[in-house]
Amino acid sequence: MDRNVGVWIDHKQAYLIWYKEGRVDVISSNIEPPEHFSGGTQLGGKLNQKGDMELRHNDRYRVKLTQFYRRVMDALKETDSIFVMGPGEAKIEFEKILKRQKVMQKRLLKVETADRMTKNQMIARVRQFYQNLPAA
Known about the structure:
The chain is of the alpha/beta class.
C-alpha cells in the first residue's frame, strides 16, 4: 500500500496530509514562543542575571521544539515517502532531524517553501506533488 505523506510544518503545528486517504492529521507543538529580555548585556557581573534567564528559557524552548519534531517523526514511521513544506525555519530544522535517521533519510523526497495555506490548499499541493512524481 502506498503510504505517501505531505507535511506542512511550522513551530506551532504540523499538518500530515496522507496522499491516498486524503486525511489530514494535526500535531500541535504547544510551545510558547521564545521571550526576549532587555538588559543583561555584560557577560559577567550584576547585569548578567537577565541574560542567564534568557539562555535558560531558550534552551528549554529548543528542547521542547526537538520533542515536537520527534512526535511528528514518530507519526511518520509507517510511511513510504515524505514531502515537507512550510514557511520559515521549521521545515529546515525538521529536515535535519529526518536526515539524522537513515530510514527516514531515504523516505524524504523534497523540502520546499510554502506560505500559509488552508487545509484544502495543502491537500491540493500534496496531490499535485505526488501526481507529478515519476513512477518508480
